[in-house]
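Reviewers asked in the last cycle whether our approach scales beyond single polypeptides. To address this, we selected a multi-component target totalling 528 residues and predicted its structure end to end. The input consisted of the following lines:
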Amino acid sequence: MNFLKEQLKLIRKEDPAFKSFWELFLYPSFVVQIYHKISHFLYLHKHYFLARFLSERAKRKTGIEIHPGARIGKNFFIDHGNGVVIGETTFIGNNVTIFHGVTLGGVNDCKGKRHPTIRDNVIIGAHAQVLGNIIIGKNAKIGAGAVVLKNVSANKTVVGIPAKEKNCINKKKRVQ
Amino acid sequence: MNFLKEQLKLIRKEDPAFKSFWELFLYPSFVVQIYHKISHFLYLHKHYFLARFLSERAKRKTGIEIHPGARIGKNFFIDHGNGVVIGETTFIGNNVTIFHGVTLGGVNDCKGKRHPTIRDNVIIGAHAQVLGNIIIGKNAKIGAGAVVLKNVSANKTVVGIPAKEKNCINKKKRVQ
Amino acid sequence: MNFLKEQLKLIRKEDPAFKSFWELFLYPSFVVQIYHKISHFLYLHKHYFLARFLSERAKRKTGIEIHPGARIGKNFFIDHGNGVVIGETTFIGNNVTIFHGVTLGGVNDCKGKRHPTIRDNVIIGAHAQVLGNIIIGKNAKIGAGAVVLKNVSANKTVVGIPAKEKNCINKKKRVQ
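The resulting structure, written as structure tokens, was:
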């Protein structure tokens, strides 16, 4: 129930198009996180097949693929969501917002931690690709369509392919 | 019925892979626009939940997310379509073609008009992101993967991240 | 059965997150290729509607759209897959790996061969757009988010919008 309240508050804040309580259950972000909570639990108890089965079902329903192994903090919001891929060893902090088409993926075949770590308050714009075992610092912003292959320092904004720092952004902006 | 005829003519023109009449009903572009006509009607009459419910269903079926509030002109064609997101306050003119992965989205949390206005005959290439309350002028073309954050003048072609004008394109080209 | 064994071996190699045999049936790459084998057969026998019907069903289930006309070699692997679009006249060689969001598409309305030819051992990163009747040479790699509009020579790596050659990559790297 806490999760429900938290999400309701969050979506109300994040999405200006939100109109009524029941819409909550139409939000892919909400639906996929319910699934993920169960599949992550199953994953931790080594029911890998069942865990993956649930995450695939969630993907068919929402277009969002979160591997059961991914660890996700509080107030995580995925706007729209179609095409999002989140890898097995991804860590996501609190208050993170990502948009549709974002990948938090790997770049090689080695076992172990191979996906990004996203710290608190990060915003990742639509279709940005964040690849490899890198760290995205607190309050960082990643522009739409960026391809991020290196660490991003806290409070920085990066854009482009490959992603480079942008100088002159200070005000909080929602990069959809 | 007019809409059916219009779409049939349109798809026949746009897609060289189109082979027979009944294929029309397999086109996500056609299916999602039927849904959108209903959900937009419901939205205008303030049945917001039902409207959103239909648009979410359409998204699950087609991979295309059109907010019930979006206003769309005639002869609108979405090729392939998976991953398309069209925001609440988007206006789309006549004879517009967009490809899969395109976003017509917002960049901040303010209420009011926060999504793009697309004028007549615009073509938007695959995975292009068009963000904010900007205007894309008549006959403009946006290249695949571009991130457009500023107005685009009529008859111009823009490409890249962030999108810049391209000089030497004159002939009509379909930028998939 | 050969196809099943081939795919099992392939996915075991490609995906470090793969854990148990039955997971195979959860892989969109596997599911969509089963569908494609049938729809391609129907296409060759000119049952175009049925062929397209199957490919659309496969797309709803997996998020991967492969036109029934596309010709695909052995050991083809699509990682994650949501948002992939493969056009009618695409040829794909052996041992090719592509990631989610990749387009192998066309740039104009002419009939005939209008989609890319992908040679053996090519790797195409997430959300890369490969457009037009171009040839991607053996062992080439295409970076995430790249937009490729020209031929790529064998053994080269290209990145960016539009995609340009990258000098200093020699070791085999998996560009997710």
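The interface with chain B takes residues 48-49, 52-53, 56, 59-60, 63, 65, 67, 69, 82-83, 85, 87-88, 101, 103, 105-111, 114, 127, 129, 131, 145-147, 161-162 of chain C (CB under 8 Å). We regard this as preliminary and will revisit it once experimental data from Aim 1 are available.
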